[in-house]
Design goal:
mainly alpha, Four Helix Bundle (Hemerythrin (Met), subunit A), 165 residues, 84% helix
């Protein structure tokens, strides 16, 4: 009879723990879906903004113009690659940690470049760099939010797979 009593007490606790974990996972998935959509928007916004940048016509030293053009080429390649990763992550029920890390990394890179372009466009192109600066700030915040999601998933992974540590 004692075994049944313990079973009756343990079973509801077990169900509650599983339900709580499932609810937390669903909330995390919902938040992650929104973040991934926002990441796609940020990368599209980056591409839209750099279309108006003409480093070659800047009133700046040759080295600055060369670096600008090189950064735009390299970061644009990263943005395109990350869009593929984003598409895969958005389709997946639970994106891989590596995909999330790649997305986070590109958001951070893009945010920094947008901030730099905000200053450079204002200084060398004679335009208003505020759109770049604002987009960079929003992308930086988005990256921080994705970092939190990534960290939560890593913690869950460690709890369920102690050998990962």
């Amino acid at each position: 009879m004692r075994v049944r009593t313990h079973f009756r007490i343990a079973l509801p606790s077990l169900f509650m723990a599983v339900f709580t974990a499932m609810a937390a996972h669903a909330k995390t998935q919902e938040n992650l879906s929104v973040l991934l959509n926002d990441a796609l928007y940020s990368l599209n916004r980056y591409e839209e903004l750099i279309m108006g940048v003409n480093c070659g016509s800047w009133k700046a030293p040759e080295e600055v113009r060369r670096i600008c053009a090189k950064e735009i080429r390299e970061i644009s390649k990263g943005v395109n690659t990350t869009k593929t990763v984003l598409a895969r992550a958005m389709k997946a029920g639970s994106p891989t940690l590596v995909d999330l890390l790649d997305i986070y990394s590109e958001l951070e890179e893009t945010a920094g470049h947008l901030g730099d372009l905000g200053n450079d466009v204002s200084n060398y192109q004679g335009g208003d760099g505020m759109a770049f600066t604002e987009a960079g700030g929003k992308t930086l915040v988005l990256g921080a939010k994705l970092y939190v999601q990534l960290r939560e998933r890593l913690l869950l992974e460690e709890q369920h797979c102690p050998e990962v540590r």
